[in-house]
Design brief:
Elements (H helix, E strand, L loop, with lengths): L1 E6 L5 H14 L4 E8 L9 H9 L1 H4 L2 H16 L9 E7 L2 H8 L4 E7 L4 H13 L4 E4 L13 E5 L4 H9 L1 H6 L2 E7 L5 H10 L6 E5 L6 H11 L4 E3 L5 H9 L1 H9 L4 E3 L2
Parallel strand pairs: 1-2, 1-4, 2-3, 4-5, 6-7, 6-9, 7-8, 9-10
Antiparallel strand pairs: 5-10
Length: 271
């Protein structure tokens, strides 16, 4: 399995690469590759509106060349630090459209795509392509996050429901769950008999989690999960545990904004 770290903004390069290294340390990973897509309007074959939007970015974010150079500089600075046991990482800068390039580079042996939630066009395009088109697990890293003294993802929190999506999420991140020292299953529900059903959902993973039932509060479900994971000092939160309709709303509307605004730890996302 290989890990692809998609770098979409200079000041989030460190967090993205730190998360990729931790993810690799937890499983059998053959390599980590870093990808920098230079989205240059002069080289895009796209609708005029898309090209216009890219050109408008120059005022706030700099030119495509400047953005790419900021990523390369940040990568070079990060790469000078010796990290014992971490695989060497090479950076490739490719000129093209973000979505198409990420799709081409997400080959069958890419088991995880790591990127930061940058709130820019490149980050959004890379995220949507990796999760929905390439259908890979995505490790989404909040801006400003750092690995600190962590060596791997030792404590994983999992948001659970008794659903097929939850089972797919658990299967997708099964390698990381098996390698964790501690797994905590979280569920926001008012049902008194939920714990037995949730333990059954986890049975196929071979992992015996601590199950914690959270009574509904005035927060959104996503925000509750994030805050509880923070309270428990989890290293990462698996957040694919929603039914189809809730999942669609969570990714495209109010719930998305709530959980991403609250998240200060990496999120494993599975579609």
């Amino acid at each position: 399995m290989r890990i692809l770290a998609v770098l979409t903004k200079g000041d989030t390069v460190v967090g993205t690469l730190d998360a990729a290294v931790l993810a690799a340390a937890s499983v059998a990973c053959s390599s980590i590759e870093a990808l920098n897509v230079m989205v240059d309007p002069m080289h895009l074959v796209s609708a005029p509106e898309e090209i216009d939007m890219q050109e408008l970015r120059v005022h706030d974010e700099g030119s495509a060349q400047q953005r790419a150079e900021a990523i390369e500089t940040a990568f070079g600075d990060w790469n000078t630090v010796l990290r014992p046991g971490a695989p060497p990482i090479a950076l490739r800068t490719i000129t093209g459209a973000e979505a198409e390039t990420v799709m081409q580079e997400t080959t069958e042996d890419i088991g995880l795509v790591v990127l930061s939630h940058n709130r820019n066009m490149d980050g959004a395009d890379a995220f949507h392509t990796a999760l929905f088109t390439a259908r890979r697990p995505v490790l989404l890293v909040p801006p400003g996050w750092r690995s600190g003294d962590r060596k791997r993802f030792s404590h994983i929190a999992v948001g659970l429901t008794d659903s097929e999506l939850t089972r797919r999420a658990i299967q997708s991140v099964g390698k990381w769950l098996a390698a964790a020292e501690r797994v905590t299953a979280l569920c926001v529900t008012d049902e008194s008999d939920a714990e037995a059903a949730l333990r059954a959902v986890m049975q196929g993973s071979g992992v015996k989690p601590n199950v914690k039932i959270l009574a509904r509060s005035n927060e959104t479900t996503g925000a509750q999960l994030v805050h509880e994971a923070d309270t428990l000092k989890a290293d990462v939160l698996v957040t694919g545990a929603f039914s189809h309709s809730e999942w669609s709303e969570w990714l495209t509307g109010h719930e998305t904004r709530e959980i991403l605004a609250a998240a200060d730890l990496p999120l494993f996302l599975i579609h």
